[in-house]
Amino acid sequence: MPDEPAQDPTPTPTPTRDPDQDPATTRDRLLAAAERLFLRRGVGQVSVRAINAEAGLNPGAVHYHFGSRDGLVTALLGRELLPLWHDRLEAATRRLAATGPAQVRTLVAAVAEPFDELVRTDRGRMLCRLLAQTMLAADRPLSSSPWAGTAPFEVVLGRAMPELTVHEITDRWRLAFTTLLEAYGRPLTADAASVPAPPFPELSTVVAFLTAGLTAPRPDAGRRLTADG
Amino acid sequence: MPDEPAQDPTPTPTPTRDPDQDPATTRDRLLAAAERLFLRRGVGQVSVRAINAEAGLNPGAVHYHFGSRDGLVTALLGRELLPLWHDRLEAATRRLAATGPAQVRTLVAAVAEPFDELVRTDRGRMLCRLLAQTMLAADRPLSSSPWAGTAPFEVVLGRAMPELTVHEITDRWRLAFTTLLEAYGRPLTADAASVPAPPFPELSTVVAFLTAGLTAPRPDAGRRLTADG
DNA sequence: GTTACCATCCAATCAGTGATTGACACCCGA
DNA sequence: TCGGGTGTCAATCACTGATTGGATGGTAAC
Question: Do A175 and B183 touch (CB under 8 A)?
Fold first, then answer.
């Protein structure tokens, strides 16, 4: 364990702060270096050593300030991505008093639009890829991070689809959210050969797909699905 | 590079074959050892060293017979999973001459049902997880493996939804397929604490969700999706 | 019968990873 | 002036996947 800090959610308690060296804190220098390397080499090709070196620091700096590689990635994502959703989601959920598919569409659009805007830039694509890798490729289900707080969406969805059980609502929202993550978090190809690069889907396609899936009529759980035999 | 073999698709040309040692080939012993360890420790916690040791072989055996760790995983998935879909898909696609959402539902069910059956056992869950990790977490889009051959499904889907463009069909099928992969390839929790383990969704839920998404009416690409401002 | 060949197997090793440690420098408050 | 704590540093741990040159042993050609 490091001497002291690491998992502190408050980034800089400003203990000292005046030295004529860096305008940016070491923490920020590490985050900036990581971002630069992720963008330059691809998310999966960057080691903590490289990040420390890019920031001009010792090999233990990332571990000291973030606890681990994942800690740094989580911090980067929280700083860069969370603000994009905050305002839009608040507005969308406040407007959702009524019920019906139209409301679900509004909700889906509010979640999906920031993704669609992000993948228009290299930096945004990198961040989406990072988010998808962190949330989908993790070896055990992760509860942390504000992304797991999907409760409000499920409430809205449950109100719009009153004939569905809570269980069904939860499953459907999870399907929709992970689909979103995967769709916009695809690898950035960057490599020649192979397929001619599958691009990102149109926003309208994604919203139509997810809205229809979420608002699909209640399935008959017992029915056989294929007529084999 | 190894002395000779590795990427050979035909497993055993039976060059020699008579020694009184193993009834199973070294290749099979490695695959069996890997399967055992994946099941015991979790997919992400098994090194090639451990596989070689479990099989009672030298540290270079996996590299010699499969070229890489991914090579072994691909071979394992191909051997265990592909047969499950082959028959069912052939039957489903042969029956799909007509058009309409009902046909799409049949197609979706044919792809989804094997997943639903697999995740009922530990071994099946492990294989699903392995498949999802291989296809979704890869650092660049992978064209290899028979899974990439999604063309027939897209043809069927395109016939059932004639008002959609080819582009739209491709995007929708990809959304549906990756959703399926993620839904049934979730981490196996195995770890205490954290969330109370998100189980797999009901098959009926998945089929309803994906069928509705695939057959959603054509979106107006230009329309604003949220009424902000 | 002898030779050459070739697939296979083996141990050793390479280059790289994330994480951890103990020591050192420095500024702050006492 | 003196601790004490924060932050930095180089060295190192334990491990990963991959690669290599060299044995081994059965097969086939001569």
Answer: yes
